[in-house]
Write a structure and sequence with these properties.
The chain has 144 residues and is α/β, with parallel strands linked by helices. Helix content is 43%, strand content 19%.
Length: 144
């Protein structure tokens, strides 16, 4: 079979679309309540907040982590930013709760519920796969 110019163009277009889709699916967006004034958070701070090691940002702002109960965004967040799979993460928190060293972060079934809670709760910080401009939400960048 001989490839025509149209076939090659179509394959390149589909390949580019697939590459952009998979690249976008590899990470999540970190969202915080508007009272979090810092425009960025370090990767280490983010991890420490979500594993319960720290509860304040460098500027002293108290933050409260918010989780999705499961799904692709939750798994991507844990893998890319916490370095654990969902079972490891849950076991870490169960141990902290059992020993009295912490309380499990709030969990929500949907990204819309995470955004609603973060937007209305000072200091709340969470993650979603996508976000529209929402009242009360600040998108944070992650620095190394």
């Amino acid at each position: 079979m001989r490839a025509t110019g149209k076939t090659c163009t179509w394959v390149i277009g589909v390949t580019a679309l697939f590459a952009s889709f998979t690249a976008g699916a590899q990470d999540v967006i970190i969202v915080a309540n508007r009272n979090v004034t810092l425009p960025e958070i370090s990767a280490g701070q983010l991890r420490d907040i979500f594993v319960g090691i720290r509860s304040r940002l460098n500027d002293g702002t108290r933050v409260t982590p918010v989780l999705l109960k499961g799904g692709p965004a939750h798994e991507v967040f844990l893998r890319n930013h916490v370095g654990e799979d969902p079972e490891e993460f849950r076991n870490r928190w169960r141990k902290a709760v059992f020993t009295g060293q912490g309380a499990m972060p709030k969990e929500f079934s949907s990204e819309a519920a995470v955004l609603d809670y973060v937007g209305s709760t000072p200091g709340a910080i969470g993650y979603v796969s996508r976000v529209n401009v929402a009242e009360g939400i600040r998108v944070l960048t992650i620095s190394p």
